[in-house]
Amino acid sequence: MWQWFFKLGSPKWFYELSGKWLPWLVAAMSLLLVIGITWALLFVPPDYQQGNTIRIMYIHVPFASISLAFFPLMAVAGTITLVWRMKLADMVAKTAAPLGAWFTALALISGSIWGSDIWGTWWIWDGRLTSMLLQFFLLVGVISLRSALEDTDAAAKACAVLSIVGCINVFVIKYSVDWWNTLHQPSSPIGMAGDSANGPEIWVPLVIMIVAVYLFFAVSLILSTRNEILQRERRSKWVQELLASA
Amino acid sequence: MLAALQFSSIGEFFQMGGYAFNVWTVYVLFLLFFFVNLYFPLIREKQIIRELKRRLIVRNEVPANKHD
Amino acid sequence: MTERRITTAAAFRATLARDLLIAYKRKNDIINPFMFFLIVATLFPIGISPDPQRLGEIAAGVLWISALLAAMLSMDNLYRADYEDGSLEQLLLSPHPLYFMVLAKNISHWLVSGLPVVLASPLIAYMLNLPTDVYFALFMTLLLGTPVLSLLGSIGVALTVGLGSRGLILAVITLPMSVPVLIAGTMAVQQTLNGAPLTAYLAILGAMLLASITLAPLASAAALRISIN
Prior knowledge:
- By secondary structure, chain A is mainly α.
- Chain A contains 10 helices and no strands.
- The longest helix of chain A has about 35 residues, at about 10-45.
- Chain A starts with a helix and ends with a helix.
- Chain C is mostly helical.
């Protein structure tokens, strides 16, 4: 029963499988992105309050939603690293951290540009913004710890511990910052734009964009993980054979 | 389908109802991030393969740990 | 295993006593974080405004941030000397659960660097013109909150103990983690000033303290094992 799990942990198996899947993922991602962006830019009706800035939502919301997935992902990968010593889990965790920092940064920047008009300011100490910023700092912490530790194995375990602690902390920070914020000011207009019962002409393209950005994340993660595999497994027989045949 | 188009001219499309800067900055940033994020790993892959091949030829490295 | 006469409780007490003795002999460990706290708190009136009215408004935040920075600065002492002279390795080899050993070290660290700051806080609060009604709130929140800072910081130090230069990494890792404590602490003071009951905030800080006493030493212990090997 566990066989598939350990098979999944074999870098060679992952490398071959991801090689087969990549073209399909890229095709699906490109198709959805083209549809999503065209729809968002050309066909979504302007919001009665925000006008055309509503189109920023179709970039911002997918990025913001996927940014929340990074710490849980890294914590799960970290647990697998610590418990089962699976090399692949750490390779994924290693590539996920910088990717997460970039996604979080883009979510913050796009939100700030969107908010510059609705709120009339580029930054407010709103609960969501603040917890996103802190998550960004925590991700930078994981990245710098990884780069500071030279030994790959020690770095893997240390980052695994930090990711698990960080994941718990991200949730505590999120709740505490929301609590801090709600006593200071009413909820943010972001929520109203995204969550309210809008018609399908608003949310269908949003769903398409969310799926597209998730696929984009998967493709970037797979590409970087494959590079990581090649580098770390360079002495193994299968990589040598791969190189000889390439 | 064309009836659902929200803009009547290209110029209007680029103006975004006065929000050209906000909307286009976000979309350009996204596209930039998108391509960079796909381009760099691919370049890196080529580099790694070239580098590893060179080592393979120069030193004919002995496999240290034998995975299958 | 009849030769193992020392109980875990005795080992815990021995570690605690040893660390306190070392701190007592090296007075710097006690004086430095405390002086740092005083100096940082002094910088705020100079940097922002000597106006008593404005100072009173920010006093609680200033005290909390100064305490946080003092805790961060003193964190380095927690494992470094022990790492360098090899006694940390001995601690890892001991048959007792590392959890209790780490907890003992954290408690001694807090007694040495956190408690003086807590005790001095009313004095600084007076100098910063904090309204007298909230002295108790400030004191209690610092008393419950600074141990959490020590316990969280310990994880960061344990992860980076083997590194040569780690000042900035330590700050990047541990400062974001201490945000919930900072929020609970400063909000307690603010809301007490507005007439809200303090107990709810003390309960939250107490819960944070209990959670970090149970979980943080586990993470620190795991991190130490990784860093030493």
